[in-house]
From TrEMBL:
Name assigned to this protein: Tricarboxylic transport membrane protein
Organism: Rhizobium laguerreae
Transmembrane portions of the chain: 16-37, 49-70, 90-115, 127-145
Domain DUF1468 stretches: 20-154
Keyword Transmembrane attached: yes
Keywords attached to this entry: Membrane, Transmembrane, Transmembrane helix
InterPro entries found in the cross-reference section: DUF1468
A Pfam family that the UniProt record links to this protein: TctB
Length: 163
């Protein structure tokens, strides 16, 4: 029984991915703290000002970074599943396509392409169904935000055809 405990203790190694997350948390906490220290303070009598909330969030992120680094060193994170790259590529391609086409093709077509490629990334391989469905849903969203709420969203040829 003692051999099982020693073998499991020697198998436990630091989790380097969690260390990277901890470093990221430290960086974000540092940037927030630095930015909060440089906020202009208005003449006030209370100690609570515009920098209080960012300082508290920075402190919380710093504590989470310490906790993550400690847990990473102990190797207490559960084993992660293998990451599949193809769905991530489909979703990133959809986001890039939307950003590139938003001004040229308009909100409905660009967001419809994002919808279709994201659906493909989540396992719906029939682009000929998800692309028109995404464009129709995006057009309805555009019409609600643009016409009813009077918000400005990029209009393309489809939007100019109806409005």
């Amino acid at each position: 029984m003692s051999e099982d405990n020693t073998s499991s203790a020697t198998e436990r190694r630091p989790d380097w991915a969690a260390f990277i997350i901890a470093v990221f948390l430290f960086v974000v906490a540092g940037v927030m703290a630095w930015d909060a220290l440089h906020l202009k303070t208005i003449a006030q009598y209370d100690r609570i000002g515009p920098a209080t909330a960012p300082q508290m969030v920075a402190f919380g992120l710093f504590c989470l970074g310490i906790w993550t680094a400690f847990e990473a060193w102990r190797g207490d994170f559960p084993e992660r599943d293998r990451q599949e790259v193809a769905p991530v590529i489909w979703i990133v391609a959809g986001l890039a396509g939307q950003m590139l086409l938003l001004r040229v093709a308009g909100f409905s077509i660009a967001t419809g392409i994002l919808f279709a490629l994201t659906a493909r990334g989540f396992g719906k391989p029939k682009l000929w169904i998800s692309l028109p469905l995404g464009i129709v849903l995006s057009f309805v969203v555009w019409a609600i935000f643009s016409q009813l709420l009077q918000l400005t969203l990029p209009a393309g040829p489809l939007e100019h055809l109806f409005f």
